[in-house]
């Protein structure tokens, strides 16, 4: 059930220069939302930006939903200026969540690139309750884009070597998995498409079950505009907003 | 309360607001969020004879006060529509207009005939104006003889409302509205999207996979109003106004310009209940202004003494 609610901002934290964590009060959406699902937010009632902006749920704290974002355009710039009590028009929960309830894995390997880390604190909270082992690989251009809040067993990679492994996060994953055995692993990925492409290739090659959460242009977020196609292995397209954003890597062509 | 109903070739619309083709799926996607029975009608996603996968991504990009799309008529095809979607549409109390897209005249006829054999459809809107496909679409919509020919071929195949959806990507839309009227159309929808494009300066590539797309949203409202004004003065059949309608005031402007009904499109992507809210806002306007019948607003524009350049084309 998709809900549309007018939600007061509870809090906004500036994590670093361009990165913010905003929480808003949305009891019904928070109750219904599963890790990996997203909300579509109209940042104000003007015509610019015109469309809603999609955000993964970062964490849920009682009746509040947190979203993590960096300022990349006008919509996120406006959102970054919100103050407690300001109202947001929120549509959610949207999309297909990560498949965390399945019994055929014991170790969740979370792999994030940059702000693709957004859904993983909520994923970790959920997995902890299910008594799963969680290992988190987080990569970014430099230490300034590493948002390491509420993550478990964290390993960091940066392109410039300013923190952790010097290189990309998929290479760090490969190196780690070559040295360490994980019991019944399942990979959960989220990040830029080139990173997910490399992650997907690695998972398929080593026959490790994997699902990834995609990001891309979207207009409505609920399947009515048909604007966010994802190419399927079997041919044709699925919709990122409605059939995703989470897909099994075997089912899609990145 | 004012009378807001409208009748077109036997199809009854309880108010003047429809949701535009391609902006509300097959009418069943937003059941959680909005009550479609509060709309005057639902225009379905364009239906083709065979399913169409649509264009590759990226298909959408936001532009100032608008958006470009290049969906490419992605749809499940008329057969699956009849099996999977029509039963729901039949069960709801609002007018259903099936939008038809095709790449040949024969295909338009075949899709219409398949739908004509089914219960529950109140009329047809013929898409001769999609800017995002190679065959059909604009090659038809920018040729007056083709628009006339398609209308002429479809007319004897149905007694239901036959609406031709026109493109603004022509010099004089009035000529196309006249061609549709003379060939037997019951109404024209004005306008489909305007051809537009967006470029990424870092990559020097077009943002959309198909280079150009169709522009919609508030950015096109002034263009759409002028096209509605032009078309409605050229024909006696009703005009259905479309283009960037976000609220009841926008919709009222289209009625005053000359359209009998309106379609809400891009606004649905932001608020799936936009159409219902617009219909209610139009009711409120009538009540507040002592208007008993909303049809008195249609074409009620008080023109200035200096004629518009559009008038000289008529």
Number of domains of chain A: 2
The CATH C-level class name of the largest domain in chain A: Alpha Beta
What Rg of chain B is obtained from the alpha carbons, in whole angstroms? 18 Å
Neighbour order of strands in the largest sheet of chain A: 4-3-7-1-2-6-5
CATH architecture heading of chain B: Alpha-Beta Barrel
Radius of gyration of chain A: 18 Å
The fold-level CATH name of the largest domain in chain A is Rossmann fold
Give the tally of β-strands of chain B: 16
**Helix segment tally of chain A:** 5
In the CATH scheme, the class of chain B would be Alpha Beta
CATH superfamily of the largest domain in chain A: Nucleotide-binding domain of ferredoxin-NADP reductase (FNR) module
In one word, what is the shape of chain A? globular
Largest interface, with counts of residues having CB < 8 Å to the other chain, equals:
A-B, 31 and 36 residues
Discrete helix count of chain B: 9
What's the N-to-C terminus distance of chain A? 29 Å
- Low-pLDDT sequence parts of chain A: none
The average pLDDT value of chain A, as a whole number, equals 96
Overall pLDDT metric of chain B: 95
Runs of chain B in which pLDDT lies below 50 for 5 or more consecutive residues are none
Give a brief rundown of this model:
Chain A is α/β, with parallel strands linked by helices and 254 residues long. Helices cover 19% and strands 34% of the residues of chain A. The model of chain A has no long low-confidence stretch (mean pLDDT 96).
Question: Can you give keywords for this protein?
Answer:
heterodimer; A: 254 residues; alpha/beta; Elongation Factor Tu (Ef-tu), domain 3; Rossmann fold; seven-stranded antiparallel beta sheet; seven-stranded mixed beta sheet; 19% helix; globular; B: 314 residues; TIM Barrel; eight-stranded parallel barrel; four-stranded antiparallel beta sheet; 30% helix
């Amino acid at each position: 059930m998709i809900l549309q609610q007018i939600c007061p901002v509870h809090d906004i934290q500036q994590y670093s220069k361009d990165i913010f964590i905003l929480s808003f009060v949305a009891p019904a959406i928070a109750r219904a939302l599963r890790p990996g699902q997203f909300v579509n937010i109209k940042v104000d009632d003007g015509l610019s930006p015109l469309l809603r902006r999609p955000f993964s749920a970062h964490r849920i704290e009682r009746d509040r939903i947190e979203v993590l974002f960096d300022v990349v355009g006008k919509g996120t710039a406006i959102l970054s200026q919100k103050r407690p009590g300001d109202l947001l028009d929120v549509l959610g929960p949207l999309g297909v969540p990560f498949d965390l309830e399945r019994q055929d894995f014991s170790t969740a390997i979370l792999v994030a690139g940059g702000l693709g880390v957004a859904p993983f604190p909520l994923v970790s909270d959920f997995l902890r309750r299910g008594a799963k082992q969680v290992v988190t690989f987080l990569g970014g251009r430099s230490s300034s884009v590493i948002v390491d809040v509420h993550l478990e067993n964290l390993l960091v990679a940066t392109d410039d070597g300013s923190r952790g492994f010097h290189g990309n996060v998929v290479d760090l994953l490969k190196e780690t998995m070559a040295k360490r055995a994980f019991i019944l692993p399942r990979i959960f990925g989220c990040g830029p498409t080139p990173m997910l492409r490399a992650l997907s290739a690695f998972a398929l090659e080593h026959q490790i079950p994997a699902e990834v959460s995609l990001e891309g242009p979207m207009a409505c977020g609920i399947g009515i505009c048909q604007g966010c196609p994802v190419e399927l292995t079997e041919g044709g397209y699925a919709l990122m907003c409605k059939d995703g954003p989470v897909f099994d890597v075997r089912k899609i062509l990145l | 309360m004012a009378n807001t109903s409208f009748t077109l070739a036997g199809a009854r619309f309880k108010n003047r607001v429809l949701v535009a083709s391609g902006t509300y799926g097959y009418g069943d996607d937003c059941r959680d969020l909005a009550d479609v029975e509060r709309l005057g009608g639902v225009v379905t996603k364009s239906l083709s004879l065979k399913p169409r996968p649509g264009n590759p991504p990226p298909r959408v990009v936001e532009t100032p006060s608008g958006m470009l799309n290049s969906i490419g008529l992605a749809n499940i095809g008329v057969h699956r529509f009849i099996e999977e979607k029509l039963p729901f549409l039949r069960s709801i109390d609002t007018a259903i207009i099936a939008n038809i897209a095709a790449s040949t005249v024969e295909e338009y006829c075949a899709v219409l005939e398949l739908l004509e054999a089914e219960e529950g459809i109140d009329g047809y809107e013929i898409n001769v104006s999609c800017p995002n496909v190679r065959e059909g679409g604009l090659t038809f919509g920018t040729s007056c003889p083709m628009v006339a020919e398609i209308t002429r071929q479809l007319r004897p195949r149905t007694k239901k409302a036959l609406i031709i959806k026109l493109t603004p990507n022509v010099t004089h839309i009035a000529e196309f509205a006249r061609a549709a009227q003379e060939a037997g159309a019951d109404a024209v929808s004005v306008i489909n999207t305007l051809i537009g494009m967006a470029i990424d300066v870092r990559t020097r590539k077009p943002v959309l996979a198909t280079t150009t797309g169709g522009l919609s949203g508030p950015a096109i409202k002034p263009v759409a109003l002028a096209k509605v004004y032009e078309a409605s003065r050229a024909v006696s059949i009703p005009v259905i106004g479309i283009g960037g309608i976000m609220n009841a005031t926008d919709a009222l402007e289209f009625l005053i310009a000359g359209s009998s009904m309106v379609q809400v499109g891009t606004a649905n992507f932001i608020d799936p209940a936009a159409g219902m809210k617009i219909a209610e806002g139009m009711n409120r306007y009538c009540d507040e202004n002592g208007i008993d019948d909303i049809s008195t607003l249609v074409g009620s524009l008080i023109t200035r003494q200096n004629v518009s350049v559009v008038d000289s084309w008529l």
